[in-house]
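quick one before i forget lol
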Amino acid sequence: METFIRLIAQDLIHRFGTNLRNVTVVFPNKRAGLFMNQQLAAVSGRPVWAPRYRTISELFDTLSDFTRCDDILSVCELHRVYAALVPNPESLDRFYGWGEIMLSDFDDIDKHLADPHKLFSNIQSIKELDHSDFLTPRQEEALKHFFEDFSIEGNSRLKEKFLALWNRMDDIYATFNAGLKEKGMLYEGALYKDVAEHLAERTDRIPADMTYVFVGFNVLNDVEKRLFSYLQERGKALFYWDYDVMYVGEKSRFEAGTFIRQNLKEFPNALEEWCFDNFGNPPHIEFIATTSENAQARYIPQWLDSALTEPEQDTAIVLCNESLLQPVLHSLPDATSPHPVKRTNITMGFPMTDTPVYSFINALLSLQTDGYDRDRRCFRAEQEKIVHSHPYAPLLEEQEIFCPHAENHALLVYIRSLLEGLAAAFGRQKDRKDDVYNQLYHEALYRAHQVVSRFIRLTEDRTLDVQPSTLRRLLRTVLGTTTIPFHGEPAVGLQVMGVLETRNLNFRHILMLSVNEGMLPKAVNDTSFIPYHLREVFGLTTIQHKIAVYAFYFYRLVQRTERITFMYNIATDGLNKNEMSRFLRQLLAETDFPVELKILQSGQAVPADNGMEAAKTPEVMDILRRNYGSGQPGSRPLSPSALNAYIDCPLKFYYQQVARIRTPKDPQNGLDNALFGTIFHEAAELVYQKLAERNPVIRRQDIERLLEGGETALLPY
């Protein structure tokens, strides 16, 4: 099997020899550079002066005069502009979600070099565009559909609010970008656009003897096309596209070739076409249906017994559902297994949400917000118990943890100080230094400290001025999207990765998990202020673009492998019915590839009955007679709650009614419904007894007099 990276390495050595110091290889992501170095060394057979490696994002950064503004600061700056231009603006708390959507729209506009003034013209002006010469017939039809749905004459309140914001969007966009530029910052799309529009002025950033090699791209936005064209016209660019003639041919109906076909016309491939007919000899393909996600992870050892290659790095496990990382790692055969995996490289990052640091910060946030009673000036027992039970709590002084902090800045400083205390405690621990999870958790602590420190800086200058509930949501969101990289040699060992990490890489044997609709292609969030039809007219990203991108990832991964196994979940979960991915159905319906269809079934074993019971000893029966025996002194009727407990679980009835073992109630959490009902009925009984002493007939006016507070109904005990 000739991998795509190896073909490029051979071509680069042929073109430039072993001195690649004046070559910059640009990838969509970082991972492929490590494999490229490995293949350059293997192809040349002697030392090679390696090229520079850049991601496309890093390349734009080196060509820009501006620094990149992070998303939180961008949304805060966007709100400041919005509040100055829109009447009766919302607070930052309510605006933040809108701001993220608006920022995403601005980013898309800039990357596609769309004209924001025309796009954000008032609705009537946009309607006049449907007869403009620059529109294609398809775009004209899209606009007609838009205005059939959007009647200006019959505006609802929602449409009026949309119009009010839309008609100021052009001003917001212009003022927002101008303000960021004054501070020397730009969000990603604006930075890309600035580079594309000033390439001729940035010649000093592009060395005269440098050749740029663009590898493995698929969909290109307009700023990338402008950069590619600029370098191509000056003879400073080579392009390597990976594809297969099956889905790129002119008559092909596969969406996987949607963008590659256009790219090959504008930027011809540096490799010959004979390199791209791999589906002429299709791989061995298996479809395996399972009834749960974890069952897929448990199948891994069995699959590896027959599929693990030598060397191991030619085998990959690809996770469409990245939340399966933990069960997958625990399912990998260790040294005690008959067929152990010698080395493993986890390409995808470990999610912060799966670390104790995240759960500890989450518990602290709940403790300081929902868990603090401002009236009684004390912590509620429920949240206090959660913090006490966390494994990190014993590593810190209790008085440091349980001190209230209501104000945002003080709350963040409090969390940071506790994280620093944990770091000091970790430093004193001498055991388990080499444990992989221990290292990950230490790294997670460092990353969490970085995030919290960033929030502190934003609250110090009042840039992020929100309610505590909003701050908590934002902090959780940012931490939830943070990942911790695994340390190791990425080009060695069994590869475990997500779909995006597979770009440009090829493997002989592949196991792909959770190949379900909604996982591949990913369910995308199409929330936007720009209506779909206008997105289509102005060439912005639509859901069809995103599906075509995932189709390309799928077929590119399949085209150079020898054996690939797809696993998917068929279990019904409530109203959600799991289905195999549309790409799997396409393989079945539109290709003649031989496919083995299998169902994974686990063996069923009846568990041993280790049930507990409370024997009805004479002592137990005596307690029951005393408590509930008719005519016994001090006995009482069996309550409905007690009967329900017995029906639910006789052992529960025994613990509650006989042994008198009950879950203690926390008065700080208020009264639950059952306790409130008991208090109310006993109070009502006492009230009626008091009224009956005066008159056997209880009248309405007697009760109303009590309700008006005319007299005290009950005396304190």
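fyi The two ends are 88 Å apart (CA to CA).
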